[in-house]
Amino acid sequence: MAGASRAEVHRMNQGQNKQYKRVLALILFLGIGLGLVTGTFLNPSFMKGQITSNNNSAVIARQINGHFNALADYVGADAADDTNLLSEKEALPIANHVIDYVLGIHWLKTNSSSLAKTIYNDIQKDVTSDSSTDAQGIKKQLKEHQSSAVAYVTAAFDLSLVMLGANLVTILLVINIVIIVSVIIMLLSMIREMREMLSTRSMIHTIVAAGMWAAGWLILLSGIMAIIPVLFNVEAWNLGGVGYLIEIASSTFLDFVIVGTVLYIVCAIPWQATAAK
């Protein structure tokens, strides 16, 4: 009877370990993944730093130039659709202000006129005599149509879509914070339960095993996202700038892969140390 009871308890502990491991892996993956997303893609300071790198600054310049060339049509200036009229240095202030508008601390936005005025001022300030002739022509025409300038900039730079993106980011940030707080509460609750039902060795083994699974998922998903721009021409995707965002984000996803790898190694050491002998 005693032997049967011990076997039953052993099976019960194994089943509990598997259940805790699955739930903990999901909780840890959500917490780590959303924490990384919040600290990077939803962080204006981080994203403004990202677009200054050599590869990303060229991507941003192409995106801004696409809108700037569209502005030429609105003001009646001459410009070729496939020509970069603004240099990277001239495009960067516009990109920074768009990032501040979308990712900065704010509640739901109802208009984009303030951003349109800021972009208009950027064009007037940064397009100088050293800029391309076509860019100077657009600046001149825009100034001559000053009463309609905000409307032209809004239309050319798709600022209604940018405003929608800003509102979606606000909602996403709130959801992320709620989920992260919930994850922490659930994690603490599960650890308390595990203390009562499992030995310290088994509890540590289960937690770090879940951490390894979470790290594996992070590596896999981040690796897939990082390799998409290599396999596809994402800049050609007509999805309101999503293609450019994926291109810029690829280097950050590579960083996520590194984070996942480090986490896996850190968890593997105590997992091996607490394995049953």
Structure description:
With 277 residues, the protein is mainly α. The protein is built from ten helices and no strands. It has helices at 2-39, 44-50, 54-75, 88-103, 113-126, 133-144, 149-156, 159-197, 200-231, 242-273. α3 crosses α7 (149-156) and α5 packs across α7 (149-156). The longest helix has 39 residues, at 159-197.
What's the arrangement of secondary structure elements?
Blueprint: H1 2-39, H2 44-50, H3 54-75, H4 88-103, H5 113-126, H6 133-144, H7 149-156, H8 159-197, H9 200-231, H10 242-273
Give unreliable regions as ranges: 1-12
> Order of SSEs, N→C?
HHHHHHHHHH
Q: From the alpha-carbon coordinates, what is the Rg to the nearest angstrom?
A: 26 Å
Helix content: over 70%
Mean pLDDT: 86
Number of strands: 0
- Content-based structural category: mainly alpha
Helices, by number, come to 10
Strand-residue fraction? under 5%
Largest sheet, if any?
A: none
Terminal CA distance: 25 Å
Shape: elongated
